[in-house]
Design goal:
The protein has helices spanning 2-9, 13-22, 39-52, and strands at 24-25, 36-37. The chain is mainly alpha-helical. The longest helix has 14 residues, at 39-52.
């Protein structure tokens, strides 16, 4: 997910991956399910990052 967003927006992959990590919610109840990315918050952060660059 990170590298495609980075290429599309002309951003460094590491910077986008950091945003993805920051917007990933942990497992439900600490052990059930998979970590999830909060896509809405991630997209907002990406737009802000693109606007700055």
């Amino acid at each position: 997910m990170g590298s495609g967003s980075a290429e599309k927006n002309g951003l460094p992959v590491a910077q986008v991956q950091k945003l993805v990590d920051e917007h990933t919610d942990g497992r439900t109840l600490g052990f059930i399910g998979e970590p999830r990315v909060n896509v809405l918050q991630l997209n907002i952060a990406l737009k802000e990052l693109v606007a700055k660059s």
